[in-house]
User: What shape does this take?
Amino acid sequence: MKDRKPLIAGIGELLWDVFPDRKKAGGAPVNFVYHATQMGAEGCAISAVGNDAAGREIIRELEKNGIRHCTALTEHPTGRVLVELDNGSPTYTITEGVAWDYLPLTQQAMDLVKEADAVCFGTLAQRSPVSRETVGALLACAPERALRVFDVNLRQHYYSRELISDSLEKSNVFKLNDEELNILRPMFELEGDDSEVCRALMEKYNLRYLALTAGSRSSAVYSQTEVSTIPTPQVTVADTVGAGDAFSGAFIYSILTGKPLREAHRKAVEIAAFVCSQYGAWPSYRLNR
Assistant: This one.
């Protein structure tokens, strides 16, 4: 791995985040790919857009930002999310029946995932039966050695215990935040403090890594033998959109390039804090140099 760029794929939603005064291209798996690519990986986003002006524009955004993609055109409209900010923290209204709800299984996508060193996915793109089936089929193509990263990303009502459990069975890396952990506690009948709950999830689903972020307070990353806890740096927050995806992308890239757990975690914290200081999910890393 150290003599070549790791290949990292993100499967799922590609959409416009529509703010009150602007719009930004995004979608959690694509954000993950963007940040891993900025770190030095070879990344590819697997998604779908509509055969419409919004779809053509978002493809141009991918290419302008150097994001390799495997994007299908559908007759459904390109996805969009209405984002409202309260002191930098976002709330989302997610449009249904959009292109990434009908993600097709293509040979190009399967061939890509067969070579991937890491594949990232979440719950949102699995809200529809079509895309859920495609996500599962693509994950089945991933090599045994690959990191299969389940960034749970609970949004609105688009998740269930069955979907989360099934996704955990398909993954070996789990990323969630403290609010999501509190949703999972009663859902999975989890007891104990955060550390005990995280260890229980790791054991139950045979995970290699689990990352728990707690906003402005701290984050923790667990492996089978270690745990790293780091306070969150204090920054002037522009918005937090994409910060969790940046954390995941930086952490996975660092692990794939041979960094120890603590160093990989520290880089993930650094990049996530930088993203919080910028507007949108795809800030230029030139600003961080």
About this structure: The chain has a mean pLDDT of 92.
